[in-house]
Amino acid sequence: MNDRPPKFGDGSMRAVNIIIAITMILFGCFYSYLTMHLPDRNLPNTLGSSFVPWVLVICLYVLSILLLLQSVFKGSSETCDYAISKKEGISILFLVVIVIVYIKAMAFLGFLLVTPIFLAVLMLTIGAGKWKEVVLTSTLVTFGIYLFFQKVFQIILPAGEIF
Amino acid sequence: MTGPILSALFDVLQFQNIFAVMFGVIFGLFIGSTPGLTISLGMVLLLPLTFKLPAVTAVCLLLGLYAAGMTGGSISAILLNIPGTPSASATAIDGYALTQKGQAGPALGIAVISSFFGGIFGLTCLTLASPVIAKFALRFGAPELFALVLLGLTLICSFGQVSIVKALISGILGLIVMTAGLDPMMGTPRFTFGMVDLQAGISFLPAMIGLFAIPQIILGISNKIKVIPKYGSRIDRVLPRMKDLVKLIKTMLIGAGIGTGIGSIPGAGGPIAVFLSYDYARKTSKNSREFGKGTLEGVAAPEAANNAVAGGALIPMLTLGIPGDPITAILLGALIIQGLIPGPMLFIQNSQFVYSVFWAFLLANLMNLCLTLATIRLWVGVLKVPQRVLLPIILTLCVVGTFALRNTFFDTGVMLCFGLLAYFMKKYGFPVVPMLLAIILGPQLEEHLRMSLIISQGDPMIFFTHPISLVFIIIAVGSFVSPLIRRRAKTTVDDDECRTDSVR
Fold first, then answer.
1. Least CA distance to A121: which residue of chain B?
2. What gap in Å lies between CA B426 and CA A117, rounded to an integer?
3. pTM for the full predicted model
4. ipTM higher than threshold 0.95
């Protein structure tokens, strides 16, 4: 048995696994609550719509408890860079924000107007330094996607209120 | 009998289908030869393009990508010692050694020809074995299908290299996600939170795109993808001499045989097949001492294996509807989007389509051989495409692709959520493939389970009194327990070694 108290910063996944196991148990509680309130319209000798969710949530509880026990008593041989660095956090936040802004802007201005700007912002953020490359790539890619999706494959692209 | 076979051939030889294969092959070579981009990612990026296409054209496109992606992975493996795909890992050993000796051209040539050989071998096995398995599977009713899907889900354990518990949690979360939407039997809403978009359930396409693409984009933005070194030398004499090829036939046969066999076992996967074939080819070779130092045999065996895996993996996918790896899982999804349900009934109801798949796979391999040999020097240039250009394009395709599914941004949101979830799952040691398998197989599992229990009037013994179902359940239990036993045995051996070391 590993006697080390679970803590962050020792390179092992022990403490992280404990937190994940507890989170899963809490999620299981939330899912159980929702399952309990499912409307039941049972026919004779048939299973209700809550049967499978109950089976799944029981499995989730069992596995989460197993992970918890494994982590507490056995530790973890896994090592990883579990901490989220500032750069990584900013990258994730940036991705979420830029996709949401892109979606909202497309709903208003349409695919053709917004996509070159979206591509240019992304390229500049990731590290493109040359303006020529940014302008050329973002314009050509937008036109290429438009051509392939809308004209060749006849797949509808997001149209905005304006364009 | 010959009617549907010939009709399928004429169907595949339509201009749009040949163009689709060619496009798939070029895109596959690009994806495969670019380190950091996987065939699965390529598949999910192309999937939205298939919505409006006829089923055969869609399959031509995706099979072209599948065949060429495997070959493309070997280009960066041979030239830079960076496998473009995990299945090209073994090729890098001798391929890169040959490059260092100034023989990059012959190594690339042999890789392409061996890939073709493996692909055709796999296709032959697929063509011969599939109808037999499908005929047998026609006897399956709801209990057998439930047991079969359950067996497919036990593959989850094989993805838990680090932690089986984590792989299982990942699978259960996937199944939980798929319970959202209208109940398949009663039609009552479940976990929809009053949202109309959720009533149709969570579509697996945005989930797949999110699981595969978003984590790579986040890594790229955080600059965690390694800078790729450049290959500066010239590539000469790609076409190998006939006498070299004749000498390699035995090695290619070994690779193709192992590749098809391993590929047809769900969950085994390409990387296992290539290393097994490399090892077996080394053991049976007269030049076994040359392996690792740069021999063409060391390139031929794994390359024949990784393309043969594709044919093998299509056997359980087409005949039983069980995807053996992420790529066939995405292919299965593509067929479901087209309204085709892979399994034994596909061979009865859409036999012409099944033959079209076989012809398309043949065409994909032929096109892969010709296009790759003709353009191999160009693909060296692809290795120079910077991430700062690739990543924004991938993200745009993800957003547009998920929107195109149902013309709603709800699916784009789903893609983003799954992407973030996948990123954190990978970071904390949870494999994402079990979640993908659960998302694809989950609805079928519930449907067949509940249908079986309606037939038996609620008696669960129906699964044990039907012989085929019982056999599947026994195999499922076996494949669930065996990784646990193997791990236990390994731990015991490791502990014993530690004890011995400490005594010493």
1. B392
2. 31
3. 0.79
4. no
